[in-house]
Design a protein that fits this description.
alpha/beta; 8 helices; globular; 17 strands; six-stranded mixed sheet; seven-stranded mixed sheet; about 270 residues
């Protein structure tokens, strides 16, 4: 299994590979290729070409949620794969998303044109759907643990955003389960537990994605507890993060997790 970071907030160490506020991942596993999210613009598609990666024969596209920094760059991938199915919650087709972060209300929805294209080929992930013998799209349904406090800035149809449309990817491998969750608005621990329940696999070896920890001081005291709960649930886990995980939060995660913590960037391979 290989996971390629097509685009991320963090700068690449490879020539011509750009970064932006967004995330897109290409996953190769079991002879299949899955695109998980597409970043904010078409730059993820361009980065794939610079990295020598084929994105014209995707087995499936998975959209984690409807925010434009995760699906705004989807159109070139759709055009390159005219018959590929898109797995997502159908809530994203009908909702408008906004944020009040940075002191003003601004729209973070994908364009109507893009959502029309998605609607033509969407497969609604209501609970969980197998994509391959070792891959499953999972809708997060378990909220026993806390969700990121940064969600307070987010709205869906002018109501608080509850992350009830969030879809993640659970991948079985020889070393256990890999959970790919690009933004984790539902909370990392809730997402991991949802994937355990959906797959019946309790050994989680890797978590890959953003954590929506926005470097707010109120969150920092919670990070050691988050890490201790994570290790109690998944003692062998390796955490790979980048997008929407602030620099101070990354430092605290690294302090708590040591060599289990990894920071990714545009162009990285996991």
């Amino acid at each position: 299994m290989q996971v390629y970071i097509l685009i991320d907030n963090n700068l690449s160490d490879k020539p011509h590979v750009q970064s932006e506020h967004g995330l897109s991942l290409l996953i190769h596993t079991g002879g299949k290729s899955f695109l998980m999210d597409a970043g904010l613009t078409g730059q993820a598609f361009a980065n794939a070409a610079h990295l020598g990666l084929d994105v014209h024969s995707l087995s499936a596209i998975i959209l984690s949620h409807g925010h434009n920094d995760h699906c705004g760059g989807l159109l070139p991938f759709i055009q390159a794969n005219p018959s590929v199915a898109i797995y997502a919650s159908d809530h994203i087709l009908h909702r408008s998303y906004s944020s009040t972060r940075h002191g003003h209300l601004h729209d973070i929805s994908a364009s109507d044109e893009l959502m029309e294209e998605v609607a033509r080929r969407i497969v609604d992930v209501d609970t969980s759907i197998p994509l391959a013998p070792n891959a499953m799209a999972v809708r997060c349904r378990d909220y026993g643990f806390s969700r990121p406090s940064g969600n307070k800035y987010l709205q869906a149809d002018s109501r608080p955003y509850m992350a009830d449309d969030e879809v993640v990817l659970a991948l079985r491998g020889e070393e256990g389960l890999t959970v790919v969750s690009p933004c984790s608005h539902g909370g990392m621990l809730n997402i991991i537990r949802s994937c355990m329940e959906a797959t019946g696999e309790n050994h989680v070896s890797r978590f890959i994605g953003g954590l929506h920890l926005l470097d707010e001081e109120s969150e920092h005291d919670d990070i050691p507890l988050l890490c201790s709960q994570l290790l109690a649930m998944c003692p062998d886990i390796q955490l790979f993060t980048g997008h929407c995980t602030g620099s101070t939060s990354c430092k605290l995660l690294s302090d708590s997790l040591g060599p289990r913590f990894h920071l990714f960037h545009s162009g990285a391979t996991i």
